[in-house]
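Sample intake sheet
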Amino acid sequence: MTIAERHYKLLMAGVDQFGGNNEIEPVLEAYRMGVREHGEAFMRERFEQSAVRLLKNMFRLGLFENPYLDPEKSAQIVGNPEFMQEGYEAQLKSIVMLKNKNGVLPRERMSKVYIPKRFMAAGKDWFGNPTPERLEHPVNLAVVSKYFEVVDNPDEADFGLAFISTPKSGTGYSQQDEERGGNGYVPLSLQYKPYTAEHAREVSLAGEPCENGPLNRSYKGKTVTPQNTTDLNMVLETKEMMKGKPVIVSMLLTNPTVVGEFEAEVDAIMAHFGVQDQAIMEMLTGEAEPSGLLPMQMPAHMRTVEEQFEDVAFDMECHVDSENHAYDFAFGLNWNGIIDDERTRKYRKVR
């Protein structure tokens, strides 16, 4: 199909809005196709149907008939202690404990903890703006100090606590690759080590059949190094410095992650999706019990990521840890072991 024919098919299927599309002509041509097939009145009604559905959401927010805020009413809502408490409890419920070897968690309150600084190499944010390199504590030490005694010498610590995040490998596009004669498309990686896409498609599913646009977006054979590849080094170095004492990892997840690069070397893993430092501390000390479940599969390696089907659920090979636990969808631990409740019985796929 032509681009206009695809737009027409989508409109007839009920699509109201095309995201990331700045070209008006295919939409207008799709309209004209509909006029030829169904008549002017039909297509005008179809477009107005979309307009009503899109505008209704805006009117429901009161953006048109009442655009001004009432400061007194806002003060009752914003920062409301009851609402804040509900939000905090939701944070606690979202934390997923992936590993707890030999019941190393929870830790005794005010025990000594060593927290390594985290290095982030220079890079670019999502919008392409440069970000400087930095070496800093990844957590508010004032908050940590309310729960543990923070020490600078790992020999004095009772356990190590490393804070990492999902590998940040960019946006999948590289201006430098295009300038070197490539198509501009590079891998997105879920592992910390440099990744070469040996098992990617020879020919991409998507392409750009427009002037000067690459029809094949394949990135097979190309290599990418995550900006935070040093997160892996930090965890492994902490393991060495602790000399057999427990090492715990707090991991911020924005994507599934190949944890096989470090999992066997650590004793516990807490995964979260962006919570307050206090919530993590309460979980580590046992003042709250983990109850979150993985909302995604954690891949065993990048090959299974590349070879999975985009439209088929549960088709990745999941990581299996040193405790023989598969990090599959709806997996999570509490203090008694693997969580088994009405949620897991409903959502966990039976193998």
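Comment: Residues 165 and 326 are 20 Å apart (CA to CA). The chain is about 30% helix and 15% strand.
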